[in-house]
Every structure is written in C-alpha cells, then in structure tokens.
Amino acid sequence: MSYRPIGGRRNRSAAWQWAIIGFIPGLLCGLSVMIGIALEGTLLEFFVPTPAPQVVTTLVHVVMTATEDPNAPTATPWTEVRVVTATPVPALVAGGLSSVVVAQPTGVSQQAGGPGSVAVQTTPLSAAGTSDSGQPLLSPTSQIPEILQLLRSLAVSVPGGAFTMGTLPGEVVQAIEECRVRDGGACEAAYAEDSYPAHPVTVDPFLMETTEVSFEQFVAFLNVRGPGFHLNGCDGFPCVQTKNESADAVITFDSANYSIGGTLAQHPAYGITWYGAREYCETIGRRLPSEAEWERAARGDDGRTYPWGNIWDNALAKTNRPLDTPPGSYPVASYPLGATETGIHDLAGNVAEWVSDWYSATYYESLNAQGTAVNPAGPVTGLEKVLRGGSWNSVPFFSRSVHRQSWDPAGSQRWIGFRCAADVAEASPVASSGLNPATLGVNVPEAPPEETPAPNAQPTQPPPPEANQEADTVASNSDG
C-alpha cells in the first residue's frame, strides 16, 4: 500500500461526487411537491382554460300609481310608453317575468338612475272622490266622468294684472243713498266696513265659468259619487240637504238616485254648502275662485261698480227689486245684458256665490299694510267663508262688485250658490253647458213657488231692522 505524504496536494477533484449527492434528494423533493399539487387539482385548472362566467340579466319593472307621494322630489320626465291597457301589472314569477306596461298618466316621471321602462297603473276616481289611498284628487281631464265633462260650464279667460280691491267712503255714501231713496231699503254704513280700505292687488290670469253651477250639473255630480254621498262625502261634511233632511230642500234622494224637478234643472244650485261647492269644482278638474279673482272678474279693467258698469239697472240682475219681483232665483244666464265684458253671467244677483277664502272683517287692513298683495288667498283660518255678488233675496246694495258677505261653510241657504274657476295653465276653457247664447234671457220662466223671502240677504253686519230672518235663515255669527 502506498500512502500520500501528509500536507501534499490531491491529484484528482471530488466535485462530481458532491453534485450527485445533492441532485438526487432535490429531485425526489420536487417530484413529491408536484405529485401533491396534482392530487389537489390545482395543476389541472392551470392547464385547462376557465369557461366564461354566466351573466344573468333580470328586467325589473317598477310599478307606480297616479297618486304617488306629493312630497316626493320631482325627477326628470321620460316619454317612453308602450301598451295601453287597464290590466294590472303581474308579479314576478318563477321562470321569468310576465309584464304589461300600461298608459302613463300626466306627471309620472323616471327617477334618476332608474330603469328606462316604467309600468304604471292608473288609479281611477273612487266613489268617494278619492284615490285608493284616501287622498283627494284634482282630476285631470282624462279622469273626469264623461257626464260631468259634458255638463260642466264654459270657462272663459279673465286677464290678470293689478287693480284696486275694496271700496272708498264716498262710494259707500252714494250706495247707501241709492239704497234708501231709489230702492226703499234700510242700508247702513256698517254693512260696508269690512270692504275698507281700498288696496292694490295683483292676480295672475285665470279661468272662470260663465254661469253659476246649475241643479242639473250638481245632481249629476251627486249621482256620479253614489247613493248617500251628500250626507258627509264632502270632506266629512254635508254637501247639500235633500228633501229627506229638510222640507225646504228641492233635491230628491230615493236611496239610490238623486233627482231635481224639471223646472229647476237650469236654476243655480242653491243650498249647497261650501264643502259641497269645493268638492264639485275639484271633481270636474277646477276649483273655487279666490275672493280677489272674483272681484277682478266682476270689476274688469275699469273698476266698475257692477259687472256691466257703474249705474244700477233692475233689468240686468235678479234681486228683490222692484218690489213686485217674484221671489226666488231665475235660470242661469237669464240676464245676458248684465254679463261682464268677458261674458260672465250673474255676478250680480240671482244667488250669492261661495269663494275659497276664509272671512275676516279686518282682512283688508292687513292686506293694505303689505303694500301690493299678489294672489291673496284670504286668512289662514276662520269661522265663516266669504260670499260675493248678492242674491235674489237682497236689495242691489249687496250686489255691488265690492260688497262682502260671509256664512258658515257647512250651512245651506236658499240664496247661496257657486261657480268654479281654474288656473290658465291647468285647465281648458273648452266645455259645454248646454246653453244657447241666442236664446239667453228669452221667455224666462217664473221662479218656482217659495216662501216669502227676507227683504235683504243676510249681510256680514247685523241685518236691517225690517229683515224677516225666519223666512230663510238665522242670524249670522259674523262679528263683522
């Protein structure tokens, strides 16, 4: 055996031995890892492409009604409307969506960011004059019952603008003198105190019906609303008394239908409460005029004392003068020469007319303190509602265009009626009242028999001494 000397150099390298020693364990470790990955399934997913994801699109139709929350914010309107049908919108069902898109009523809008197709169910006018949610409706023309559309009075445009509302002391002195000397009445200055002071007012243009609402029109309204509606259907108050409630009433209710005698059909509907008047106007898509609008229509641009001018004429309005005039109302528009320049009849006499305002004897003082009042709507609240125009039951003093009266809004009187108005932008003047202008005032029938009326209509002040209050009513509660 031969030995290498200690400290001498090796003659051969051992690197290949160490490489083999390191490679074999590494190879075994790597194979173990790959086998584990393969068993887990990750390696297969790496080499096999992943399929495209399935996207499921669901078309959602939003169901809205025509009586949506009035406090909701206004959204951008849309115009896409498809099938017109009264069929309700069905619910989502398993396996798909079955939908019917119905007509879109005016005012329905699409919410920002919402769907591009909206299904709308119209809410028909119920028998109680409200939507299914119980909210009162100011019906668009398409929802007004056809019979009421056919019967409602023609409405004409009244120019807006500034005018002087109220009266002056000198005008009152003259009116009292005429009342006492010409008419044999007992008018007093106190009757006009609530018309002071004269003050500037501005109103927007509006529409006003040319005739007072007739019994034919009002009875049709009651029949549309249904049996018993007159008792408390007008905002919880009576609309009118029938013969079932008062011997003095003229409307008959047989538990199924309302009717009126043929001789009274074209007379102004009297005995209507303020609530009944308002309900009728809103049902036909209109409203009661404000006190300022009423005076604007009656006085015109030149501030006239009567609808036709500044001189009284018994032949142009139905009051209780001359003394031999038969009591009671005449058919609407029986005095065509007494109409305003815009063609509005009976703003003086026949029946006094409800307006929308609450009454206050000092309201004009507060308006005058404001400067020019724009579209005044009366006090916020009160006990009585304002009446305008005088009636068949009063002397001409009460038919002056500036005169104010008032009454309990739930009260029914034979000398109180009404007419409707509308905003120019929200209503059409096109309507039919069944009146032939060529025959207005011709062959006017006599008024139906009635009890002897009071010499004067109930004023807002204490009545004249000779007034017989038992014939029609009781004394007013007004302090004014």
Task: Describe this entry's structure for a reader.
The protein has 480 residues and is an alpha/beta fold. It folds into two domains: 46 residues, no CATH class; 331 residues, paralog of FGE (formylglycine-generating enzyme) (Alpha-Beta Complex). It is 20% helix and 11% strand. The chain is built from nine helices and 14 strands. It is elongated and about 150 Å long. It starts with 14 loop residues before the first helix and ends in a 57-residue tail after the last strand.
Task: Write the SSE topology.
Blueprint lengths: L14 H26 L1 H6 L14 E4 L52 E4 L24 H6 L3 E4 L2 E5 L3 H14 L16 E5 L2 E4 L5 H11 L3 H4 L18 E3 L4 E3 L13 H10 L7 H9 L52 E7 L4 H8 L2 E2 L10 E4 L16 E3 L8 E2 L3 E3 L57
Parallel strand pairs: 1-2, 5-10, 9-13
Antiparallel strand pairs: 3-6, 4-5, 6-14, 7-8, 9-11, 11-12
CATH class of the largest domain: Alpha Beta
Shape designation: elongated
At CATH level 2, the architecture of the largest domain is Alpha-Beta Complex
Q: Note the run of SSEs as H and E.
A: HHEEHEEHEEHHEEHHEHEEEEE
Share of residues in helices? 10-25%
Number of domain units: 2
What structural class is derived from the secondary structure elements?
A: alpha/beta
The CATH H-level superfamily of the largest domain is paralog of FGE (formylglycine-generating enzyme)
**Average of per-residue pLDDT values:** 74
- CA(first)-CA(last) distance: 150 Å
Gyration radius from CA atoms, angstroms: 40 Å
Hey, roughly how much beta strand do the residues contain?
5-15%
Classify the fold: give the CATH topology of the largest domain.
paralog of FGE (formylglycine-generating enzyme)
Report the biggest beta sheet as strand number plus sense, adding barrel if it closes. 4 strands, mixed
Question: What is the number of beta strands?
Answer: 14
Which strands sit side by side, in order, in the main sheet? 12-11-9-13
The poorly predicted ranges are 1-11, 55-139, 427-480
Chain oligomer state: single chain
Number of helical elements: 9
